[in-house]
Amino acid sequence: MAKVKVRAEILSQECLCNDIYSMWLKVPEIASQSVPGQFVDLYSRDGSRLLPRPISLCEINQEEGSLRLVYRIAGAGTREFSGLGAGDCLEVLGPLGNGFPMEEMEGKHAFLIGGGIGIPPMLQLAKELSARYGRDKVTAVLGYRDSQMFLKKEFEPWASVAVATEDGSAGTKGNVLDAIREQGLKAEIVYACGPAPMLRALKAYGEEKKIPCWISLEERMACGIGACLACVCQSREVDGHSHVHNKRICKDGPVFLADEIEL
User: Fold this and answer.
1) What CA–CA distance (Å, rounded) separates 188 from 206?
2) For the sheet containing 110-115, what is the strand order?
3) Does 193 count as an annotated binding residue?
4) 70 in a known ligand binding site
5) Is 77 marked as a binding-site residue?
6) Which of 23, 192, 35, 225 is nearest to 114 (CA)?
7) Model confidence over 114-165: pLDDT tens digits?
8) 58 is in an annotated binding site
9) Residue 183, CB half-sphere, CA atoms under 13 Å: how many?
10) What percent of the chain has pLDDT over 70?
11) Is 172 labelled as part of a ligand binding site?
């Protein structure tokens, strides 16, 4: 899988809610190689901002050569992107990182767990697992701050959906594990993306239930290709690149088996 840097046209962009934006990009060279769990680097059009912004893939349309990115405004770079519209262009590098190991689900029921801005990368995974193994084998557990439940309806054709909200305005009050326990949900494998406290709790849940837990780490990145070591996490194994106990999230990840890393 060869990453490429291309000039991509924005096909559309809309605000979903509260600083959450959805952007479709025309990037056939990248879309043709992409899999769920990977990300791309978007480059600012402002020369003073040298580092790209990593954004996970929400949807992949290989037939039309397009990618959907759903992101939250987190700083000057993403605020710049949010002001662009159809016909504007951006430099894009991708596909980057590894994807979720979908073959690990065979014969199992899966939890797809997303928290906050970790929800978007789970949508393409839901679509592909549902197409491969059947919708009845996929349960999406989505954690939100409040009733602004972006993307929830888009999961429903591909998975049964359970919701947790921090303020209790929809679904289970609390976090994704509260929803799993309150609603009596069960699975034999976990795929997840979200904030570190959620992933730590899911790692412990996987250990308790003795089921594999594949997690996608969210981390600030610099180069996005594994050269700068700015986004390492501790690992059980010695890394062949740096010769210490770490993994480069952008290069070795962002998807890891939870047992392989320290959170």
Assistant:
1) 9
2) 172-173, 160-165, 138-144, 110-115, 189-194, 213-217, 255-257
3) no
4) yes
5) yes
6) 192
7) 999 999 999 999 999 999 999 999 999 999 999 999 999 999 999 999 999 9
8) no
9) 21
10) 86
11) no
